[in-house]
């Protein structure tokens, strides 16, 4: 069993990317120390642990740093492999799961940012795109009991 005594997550509470990591940690029942970052005044620890991108989330496991939410989730799944896996064993089903993760990153995140940061016609276009994306997701979810499962 992997040692989860030395797990620290540098994050910002509202970040969807941080939420992805927090869900992964919860699903694997990994105990960790949560450190909320002030993104306008980044901590020395964040700048030291992620000197390339200087952004959250950052997972620190036994002094080793893992950055970028999808990479962190993959790391968690590989290190704590004795706990229920995140990905299906079938290669095609894994590819489909990766497709939908990519879809969420590209089609949900960016329109939601535009929705929150624009006004007028640009915001209305973002709102339309946002609802179209959720119609697609609803169509996928409506066909089965579990998403991609």
From TrEMBL:
Catalytic reaction equation(s): RX + glutathione = an S-substituted glutathione + a halide anion + H(+)
Every GST C-terminal domain range: 90-149
Its EC number(s): 2.5.1.18
Gene Ontology CC: cytosol
A Pfam family this chain is assigned to: GST_N
Location within or outside the cell: Cytoplasm, Cytosol
UniProt GO MF annotations: glutathione transferase activity
Keyword Metal-binding: no
Database matches in InterPro entries: Glutathione-S-Trfase_C-like (IPR010987), Glutathione_S-Trfase (IPR040079), Glutathione_S-Trfase_N (IPR004045), GST_C_Tau (IPR045074), Omega/Tau-like (IPR045073)
Keywords: Cytoplasm, Transferase
GST N-terminal domain mapped to chain residues: 5-84
Main localization (coarse): cytoplasm
CDD domains, per database record: GST_C_Tau, GST_N_Tau
Biological processes annotated in GO: glutathione metabolic process
Family named by the database record: Belongs to the GST superfamily.
Function (record text): Is involved in the conjugation of reduced glutathione to a wide number of exogenous and endogenous hydrophobic electrophiles.
Name recorded for this polypeptide: Glutathione S-transferase
Organism: Carya illinoinensis
Source lineage: Eukaryota, Viridiplantae, Streptophyta, Embryophyta, Tracheophyta
